[in-house]
């Protein structure tokens, strides 16, 4: 029988063929046993048919026997084939196990080789080397430090100065640099140590795993070989037992499949182990690379250390050289110094000899000096006493000097005041000569009409050293004005009159004089000009003065004083002493061609009596008795020198102007408004005249108002003019005060020219002649020049202003 070709001992193929075999065997068995049972049951008792059937059965059995024999042969053949397959498979397994063993052995060898090559020994060696290197560097450092210390301690080092210290500093720098590098090396060493430790640990782990793998492999191997042995035994026993072959074949087939499965498992495990080995190899390779880089690093470090050592060596050499040169310098310097010292010593010795001889000659001088010193000492002891006496005398001298100085000061002050007076006089004289309008200011006291509160506070101050200065605080701003004289609220009527009396008396000498009071309503104009019965003002005092002056001169001069009183109310001039006070008067030029003005029909009283109170006053919001008209008191003094016949005429105009309040502020309306408008118009006309006079214009607009027309004589060159600007001190009136003071300053700068005296020999002018008879020729008491109702001696002095009833 031909054996089937030995195929690959694959488990799958074997399993299918074995299954087919078992199936056929069972089929054959079935028939076999089936036919047997049939034979035993169906034997007929007849001969022929029975024999026939038996023969048939026999032949059938023979066929079947042949068939079975063939099948058995085939089975045997197949069994032999199976045996050879199994043998091949086991051989293959054995080969595989052998291979694995070899591989394991080689791996173990490789591991041991790696261990021997790269393992702990080399790394440890490397580490040891680094440690040794480190130790050597430390020793080097210590040696450098010791040298440095030694250099510092050397005596010559101190005198070498800054060069040595620079060298030392350099060395110190190098040393610190080396220390730094050693520290870095130390760090790297510790890192390497750590790395080596990690690698050693990993290697031990790999070894352990390899050992485990080997043990597993050995176990597996043993198990497989045991099974193989079992399989062999089974096969042998199968071979020995051929009759129950079917069962055995089946068992073998089952066993064979299990074996195959185990084989495949062991192959898979083998695969896994191989992968692990490959991985371990990879790890080992990486470790090798790391070790390589560590080697390189170590080599670099070594090179650096060698470089530093060389540098240190060089620095050390340099330092030694420097020290040597310094030592030489020092020795040289010492020698030079020594030589110099010897020379100097010699010179000193020589000097000493000279000094000794000098000393001998100086001894007598010293003796005298000692005597002097003793004398001085005695003097010094007595010095405090001397000093005290000197101080006393000096103090006395100083006291005397101070007294002298203070008396001098007093004298100077007196002189200064005198000079001041003189200056004033000179100024006044200058003013007179220049014909300036003199301007004085008078500040009234705060009255209860001013009210209370911040509006009634004082806004005017004075200069204590200069009585011509007035300060005004207007809206928080201080403004100063300089006038000819400023009277504070404390000034009396007499004080003010004293200032103007010289001016008044000059009209006895034939001068025209004009005094007018200007200012805001309620600022005190009437008070200054008229005053009160108890405390009269300029008007009354002027008349009194004139009368007393005239009386004093009565022996040589015959004087006549006449008085007229007029008011300008709403631009109408009215006679306050006439019979018809409502009659309007006109101002005319004198027909004598003198250019003088006169008022025809104006009542003129001779003697010592004057004006009745026919002055227009009215209530306003500002002043209960506010004057709404300009009031004029005209005093004419005519004199004749009894011996020479010289005649003089002086006119004194005393004007109390109406209040310069603003229309809006006064709250006036109707007839009061008209009054205010007229007053303002006349005052602005006065301003225009002043402006024209200041700027020396050819035309002065005197005729623009009755007031300026009437005052034309007083405001032109023939007259001596004085303005009293009345000032309210309170805060609420500062705007008006400012305006008044500005106007006053403007008026002050007007130059009218020196006043001229009206004196002439011969007759009076026709007008005067008509009105006056000289007292020398017919001496009589005061006589009326012009008849007027109510004439006669009205000796009661009083206000020349009259009061009109509000309804008038
Ligand atoms: N120097 C002063 N001492 C005391 N009282 C004064 C002084 N000056 C003015 N007065 C008082 O102030 C008030 C106003 O004064 P006065 O009537 O003279 O003002 P005025 O300027 O004439 O007013 P108007 O323009 O309205 O006539 C009066 O009561 C007056 O007595």
TrEMBL record:
It holds the Pfam family Kinesin. Residues 436-750 form the Kinesin motor domain. SMART domains: KISc (SM00129). It is found in: Cell junction, Adherens junction; Cytoplasm, Cytoskeleton, Microtubule organizing center, Centrosome; Cytoplasmic vesicle membrane. PROSITE patterns: KINESIN_MOTOR_1, KINESIN_MOTOR_2. Residues 756-808 are annotated as: Disordered. GO terms for cellular component: adherens junction; centrosome; cytoplasmic vesicle membrane; kinesin complex; microtubule. It comes from the Eukaryota. CDD domains: KISc_C_terminal. SUPFAM superfamilies: P-loop containing nucleoside triphosphate hydrolases. Residues 799-808 have a biased composition (Basic residues). Belongs to the TRAFAC class myosin-kinesin ATPase superfamily. Kinesin family. This is Kinesin-like protein. It comes from Equus caballus.
